Amino acid sequence: MTRYVFRRLVQAVFTVFGVMLLTFVLFRIIAGDVSTAYVNQKLGIEARQAFYEKHKLDRPSIFNFHKRLQFIDNTTGSHVFTIKDISGSMAARALNLHLAPPRHSANPVGREPLIMASRLVFALSASTPLSAMTDNKPLFASAPKTDGVASKGEGSPSLRFTLSDGTQFEGFVKPKETCGEFITAIQACPNNRGKLTVAFSSWSLVNVFDAQFFWHLWENVTFQGRSYATNQTLLEIIGQRAKFSLSITVPALVLTWLISMIISCFVAYYRGTWIDKFGVLLTVLGMCIPYLAYMLLGQWVMFKIAPEYAAGLFHPSSIYVPVLIAVVAGLGSEVRFYRTIILNEINKDYVRTARAKGVPLTSILFLHVLKNCMLPILTDLISTIPFLIMGALLLERFFGIPGLGDLLLTSITSRDVPIITGLTYLTAVLYVISLIITDILYAVFDPRIRLQ
Fold it and tell me: 283 and 373: one domain?
């Protein structure tokens, strides 16, 4: 059995990995830019870049063989370090320059140098054309103007640099120059004198995994993905909301299973009689009624009887209403399923022998028949366990219960990707674990089964 469980665990890892890969493609690549839903576009590119940096969306998709172009302000002062376009330039905007957050909380020799960084570019080097760093965006709004220095091969100043100590100087951008030529020209500006250093960011083998996909895996596995809307980690959200989901799903599951088993056993025992026919009629009728109809009818009745219990959690007893609706709505399909299973056992020889010997009805049904029907019943029962913590999505939304099901629906409509992928990961893990538990219980309830 140990080898079997180990093999199933390995398969589970690959299964969950496939789910994570699929959610990454769907919600990180195909879904496109989500910053428009959470960043005020009037705040400009700086706010959008800060959002990308915070949620690791500025990294490459799969592997990171990329570097940045860094403008390092080596001065100190009260002025704001800025790089602005002038003379029709669009270079600073095209490079997506943004102020990188400090890497350390303190520096023994003073303030850590401020760094203005460009976008990540694959295999960035001195020979890389400057236009390759702009994602094919133009460097100029129009053709560069010329002035008195045009004879030296220069255009009008394109960028104005303001350093922390108040130093200002202007640099040139040429449409066809390389990164190496651009760095040399900026550092050679007369007023620079080493105050502003332009260089490539460092790179090591570890940086290969500093990509969106691996951050996606890490945040989901550790439940540390942060909501775009509330900035809470998924672990904090589960701690707050899971109790509300479990307060609905656990009582509903237990009650539905117990009532369904009792009704199914007696209906199957009296097969062909009016009890069986009436029971089948009710189960089919219950299956034909939409789930939403149960919720609408249940809430309408509560508004008529006790409006304060019809929605929300203003009273602790309000939770009984959605639980009752979940039980009633699930009885039809469960009784129909269990009746079919029990009918396969009720007409076997050992049941007829027990009835001929006068064994009580309850003993026949619950000590003999039910025990031999446990394998399909376990499969059906344990397969619902992963969805317990997720709650009943429609019930939570309809009755205003702040559980995980309601959160998932809200996250889908608001494009809160970390929450969607995190809850999907949680469901996948619970599902594969429940399947392994089901296989183990097969061997427990049926000694003829051997796990190899």
Answer: yes
pLDDT at residue 356, rounded to an integer: 84
* Token pair 């050679």 in the structure block, residue: 188
Q: Is residue 328 part of a domain?
A: yes
| Domain shared by 312 and 372, yes or no | yes
Poorest-pLDDT segment among 191-195, 200-204, 351-355, 367-371: 367-371
Closest by CA to 411, choosing from 235, 250, 234, 247, is: 234
Average pLDDT of the chain, as a whole number: 82
Instruction: Please name the residues in contact with 147: beta carbons below 8 A apart, sequence gap of 6 or more.
Output: 155, 156
Cβ atoms 114, 73 nearer than 8 A: yes
96 and 241 part of one domain: no
CA dihedral 286, 291, 297, 302 (to 10 degrees): 110
* CATH assignment of the domain containing 371: 1.10.3720.10
Q: Whole domain around residue 163: which residue ranges?
A: 66-147+154-202
Using CA atoms, how far apart are residues 233 and 419, in angstroms rounded to an integer? 9
Residues 116 and 71: beta-carbon distance below 8 Å: yes
Burial of 219 (0-12, 13-18, 19+ CB in 10 A): buried
State pTM to two decimals: 0.78
Nearest Cα residue to 171 out of 179, 161, 180, 162: 161
Q: Is residue 99 part of a domain?
A: yes
Residues 402-412: pLDDT tens digits? 888 888 888 88
Does residue 394 sit in the same domain as residue 289? yes
Encoding tokens for residue 190? Answer: 């007369």
Q: Which residues contact 191 (CB under 8 A, 6 or more apart)?
A: 167, 168, 169
Q: Is residue 226 part of a domain?
A: no
Closest CA to 428 of 1, 19, 6: 19
Q: How far is CA 72 from the centre of its chain?
A: 36
Number of domains in the chain: 2
Structure confidence by residue, pLDDT tens digits, 387-396:
777 667 778 8
* Residue 33, both tokens: 């830019």
In this structure, the number of other CB atoms found within 10 A of the CB of residue 121 comes to 21
Lowest mean pLDDT among 46-55, 142-151, 243-252, 335-344: 142-151
Residues 70 and 182 in one domain: yes
- 387 and 321 co-located in one domain: yes
For residue 442, being part of any structural domain is answered with no
User: Do 187 and 238 reside in the same domain of the chain?
Assistant: no
39-56 mean pLDDT: 78
Which of 126, 41, 116, 48 has the alpha carbon at shortest distance from 84? 116
**Same domain (yes/no): 197, 288:** no
